[in-house]
Design brief:
Length: 156
C-alpha cells in the first residue's frame, strides 16, 4: 500500500466523490456528486485543502482530507482531518490508521499546532487509541457528534 495525493490521480476524482457522498451525505443532504467532484478538483498537494489516497496495485483503497472547514455549523475549529473513508472490501487491514497517521504527519510538516476531526460515537475509541482527545460533543444535523483534537508533533 502507498499513500498518494489525489491531485496526482485526477482519474479517481469521480469515484472518490461518489464514495464520499454515499458515506457522508446524511450530514449534507443537498450535497451532490457534482459538487463533491468540484470540491476535490480544487484540492492541491502542497496546500489546504488536500486529499490523499491509499492505493495498491488494484486501485484506491481509501481516502482522507485535510481541510480548513469541514462543516459550516462548526466554524470555530480549524483545520480538520476529514473524509476518512475506506472501501468496504479493504476494511480491517490498517488502512484507516495509516491514512490518519499520514494526515497528522502532514499537519505537523505544515506547522499545524492543533488538528480537529468530528465523528459519531462508534468511531470514538478508534481515534482515542491514536491519541485524539475529546474537545466537545454537540448536535450536527441528525447526529450527535464528538469533536476531537490532536496536537501533531513538531516537525523536526
Amino acid at each position: 500500500m502507498r499513500i498518494t495525493c489525489l491531485c496526482d490521480r485526477p482519474q479517481r476524482i469521480a469515484e472518490v466523490a461518489a464514495a464520499h457522498v454515499a458515506a457522508f451525505g446524511q450530514l449534507l443532504p443537498e450535497w451532490t456528486q457534482v459538487q463533491a467532484e468540484q470540491e476535490l478538483r480544487q484540492h492541491q498537494c502542497d496546500a489546504i485543502p488536500v486529499t490523499w489516497l491509499a492505493e495498491d496495485a488494484d486501485g484506491w483503497l481509501g481516502s482522507i482530507s485535510l481541510l480548513h472547514e469541514d462543516h459550516a455549523d462548526v466554524p470555530s475549529y480549524s483545520p480538520w482531518l476529514a473524509s476518512l473513508y475506506v472501501q468496504p472490501s479493504a476494511r480491517g487491514r490498517g488502512i484507516a490508521r495509516a491514512l490518519v497517521n499520514h494526515c497528522v504527519a502532514e499537519a505537523a510538516r505544515r506547522g499545524i499546532a492543533r488538528l480537529y476531526l468530528y465523528c459519531d460515537a462508534p468511531m470514538l475509541a478508534f481515534y482515542q487509541r491514536q491519541g485524539w482527545q475529546v474537545e466537545a460533543r454537540l448536535p450536527l444535523g441528525p447526529l450527535w457528534i464528538v469533536i476531537l483534537f490532536i496536537q501533531p508533533p513538531k516537525a523536526g
